[in-house]
Amino acid sequence: KIIIVHTLPEFLVFVASINKLFGAKLILDGRDITVDLVSSRWHGPCLIILKLFARLVEMCCVHFCDVVITASNGFRRSLIARCGNPEKIAVMINTADEKIFQYMGQKEFAPIEKNARLIYHGTVSNRFGVFVAVQAMQIICNSIPGSTLHVYGIYDSNYRRKIEKFISEAQIADNVYLNDVLPLEQIYSQIQTMDLGIVPYLSDHFMNIALSTKMFEYIASGLPVVASRLKSGEELFNDSCVHYFEPGSVQNLAERVLELCVDPELRAEKRESAYNVFKSKYTSEIQSRQYIKIIANQLGIEDLVFVNAS
Description:
The protein is α/β, with parallel strands linked by helices. The chain has helices spanning 17-21, 34-41, 47-64, 73-83, 130-143, 157-170, 184-191, 205-209, 213-221, 231-234, 250-262, 264-281, 284-299, and strands at residues 2-5, 25-31, 67-70, 89-91, 117-124, 148-155, 176-180, 196-199, 225-228, 243-245.
């Protein structure tokens, strides 16, 4: 028997203590890591105590479980550094759902001299760097008139007010649109009308070891990506795949966007290289097979035969 606990906080694995005592295998599929998440989200004098408690719980959980599944190589390294047991810690990428995000192979590229369309979707709070992208629109619009940034997401209210104040003062209300969150199917419909996907995360410990699911969704759709140069993303998709800029740099983000806009061949090369890496390593089917192998190993099943249902 296998019990999979698919949630945070990690200590919820202990609800399966009796089952574990009677021989059940226990998999913690938490993906994110509470210790690093706490450090990124909260600050103040209580953080030290909270972080110490989170580390103690994390260490107990890793030793208690048979497998711990996390969402990036950076998370895995962080867990191993604190808890050891590398043989227990597996990586499952939170990748794009290709039933929704389908490759736009027919997309044609031409120089963009006006009305460049950029998209960001997901959480809109400080560490995700959307304000950097909004500020960059001033520079982008000076070179490519009529350009627009379309944001779809769930907003931190204070952060949204900060963005709205800047939009008003910079007089770019016609260039930046702050939209509500949409279902993924509708996000894909918007992606089909865009020129570039923007992933402007800021650099901190957590963001450097995390991965952006939206990057996979843009790449799976065949949309060229401009993203912050953060370690976990860069080690999966190198410079031939993604046009990276220095995290937090408004000027560098604008420059990288403009470089892709004026060079259609570069946009085509980037999106093709990224998609080739994606389809060879990070599709949902590949990740599903990896998940099944993890379960099969715990059950002692060695000879697996995968059948392509399509």
